Input
Amino acid sequence: MLTDQAGKGVHQDTPGPGQSAQNPLRTGGNLLQLVSPEGERISHPEFDVWVKDIGDEQLCSLYEDMTVIRRIDAEATALQRQGELALWPPLLGQEASQIGSSRSLRDDDFVFPSYRESGVAYVRGAHLTEIARVWRGNASYGWDPQRINLATPQIIIGSQSLHATGYAMGVQLDGANTAVLAYFGDGATSEGDVNEAMVFAASYQAPVVFFCQNNHWAISEPVRIQSHVQLADRPTGFGIPSIRVDGNDVLAVMAATRVALDRARKGGGPTFIEAVTYRMGPHTTADDPTRYRDPIELEDWAAKDPILRLRKLLEAKGLLTDDVEARVKAKADAVAAELRSSCIDMQDPQPLDVFNHVYSTPNSWIERQKDHYSRYLNSFNQPVEEGAL
Amino acid sequence: MTATMIKEFRLPDLGEGLTESEILSWKVAVGDTVTLNQVIAEVETAKAVVELPSPFAGTVAALHEQPGTVVEVGKPIVSFEVDDAGSSNGGGAPAVVDRSAVEASVKGAPTAGGTEAVGAPAKREPNLVGYGAVVEHSGRPTRRARGQVQDVKSVTPEAAAIAEPVVARQAEADVERPRSTPPVRKLARDLGLDLQLVPGTGPGGLITREDVQNFSGAVEAPAELAPVAAELGERETRTAIKGVRKFTAAAMVQSAFTAPHVTEFLTVDVTATMELLARLKGNRAFEGYKLTPLTIAAKAVLVALRNSPTLNSRWDESSQEIVQFNYVNLGIAAATPRGLTVPNIKDAHRMTLRELSTALTELTDTARAGKTSPAELSGGTISITNIGVFGIDAGTPILNPGEAAIVALGAVRKAPWVVNDELAVRQVMSLSLSFDHRLVDGEQGSRFLADLGAILSDPAMVMTMI
Output
């Protein structure tokens, strides 16, 4: 049995007509795996070549990144419980999907994330304070999208897939060879936005990769109710080729993402990747999954933990030395401490900051509103200052 | 000696826009040394039960609230004594207050909101994340009385003496819905309690989880028994009500107090059925299939339903409709390591005896392994409980919530029986049928039970029913 056993939409070992393994637009079989849950390297005739450059050092580095983002997630969750963040959407369990895909990108590629891709933001080079400040409610955006080629996260489900497709069509008009990647979840594939984006991406053969992390739960809605076919069979209806990959297998995710990015760069058009993973935590810190989720399901997925799996592979290869362990732990500790201090020491925004960055150039109407609001605030006899933003 | 300082941890807004939470339990005690992010308490919001990690490394100086208390967001709940220099939080958000002020507030007035940082309600303070939240005084607009307050004195003196607090509460209840939180309301509903009768001890008369539990305990245990129970305290084992037990209890209470149950009994001679079973077991076509009285009885239920479809229906209160199922999802009560579950066999009406046998075997194996999925537990239309496996003859089974009927199969045992006016030793089984009297009249229930008995005493009777 492969990684998923959760229901119709995700689990069809006997594919229906025009679906799954028999679908001519699908590559990689029912579920692409290069490392088994037991940590054994599985060779694959088609996809091995895409990760042949990943040597011992890179494997350790992937392990470090996955461990660090899990630590970021744990620390941020604690900060929310301590009243230092308003909300946090945990990524626990999705480390391989986020690291495997984001580590396959070039700096000049452009990424459009949802709200859960904090691990991707870390890899793209967002500062920890930039990751934290939106969730603290101190700013309406985290980072400068142009600096790290990472758009601001979308809370609206799936809308970033349209932004990504539009950006990719722009890339085409520029004649550039950069690729564009949109992250979204299983629930987003049921939204109009994602389907519209796929129509345009296919029509224009735009260089965009739709990276769907199927974490099995759209808040409390299980994926098996949303889709009676595997999610990787949805894009093929639009004529978009797809790969269904074990999202807890970092090597397989890398291979699939590299194939898709390469296709985009070479004018081959869009690709849809379904990374089959699992949201081990709540939807956000305001959610209680025990109310709708069977604890047995969680146990089953804990056995397929992406970090545990990579650890087993490293151990088998004799790479998990005390040195490596100590280095990774020190890095994770340092990142957690920096996240905490940067969060707690963050300068609070001032009322008038809300007018900043509405326009990139001076705007008389905004200035007028700002003036009115400033006078209104003064009527309370409060000091009015502009803050950090 | 290193200088120390006192830092307070105020209850944050743990969801999005919550105004209060209930402290369920403390995981630390005063004097305990805690590390950063160590779990110090479990609290329940209107949305979830969550663990609170410590924002400081240090020593617990004071716990300001008791478990069971509903605390407003922004109120201090713990004070920590932390190393002055070693504080990793620097100018951190949780308020740093003068130690003497904290001690005063701990020792002094029970309202812990007496510290400078929390007081001064007149001044408007920012209340964003990370500022250290401000106490939100209930956050609800005060409701105005909708009607006349009932005259308490009009109640007879005796009644008033016995039930004084209840009557007083009811008078208030006419004015305003009792204040509580959704999880507590649910608990009361699950326990079958009317919240209007429960005295609230929380802020502003708020009814807490503890209030409901206390009230529930008071109702169940008469006062004179209390000392005895206390004496036996150490001889009891107390287990938290949760998981399958909690779910089962809620389902049973809901079913028992929603659907008016009627139970009928019929004892039948099932010798012919047992002979049929023996013949089938020797039949090649059934080789490898597990055949038991339950298999035949399940098939018999499916056949008997054809003449009495009302037993396979549902009362839909919300839409004021009776749902008649034209299919049968046959529930089978199963004792599992996790407790009672009632998984069902989908579209059992379409199955041949062999398919039914396979489905029953799979269902029980899955249930025993504890692997039954939520989908298999929902959508049942009628159920069978096989109490015979425990050597029991009959009972008054409670309906699986939402279903109109449940059949309990008793043990098959040899018994004296009148055959052709003479006593004979026959194999006999008792059938118990409970049905929802809203949906099923005595006539229909009786006919179904008689048909079921007829098939089991003479399987050839199936010929007359299909």
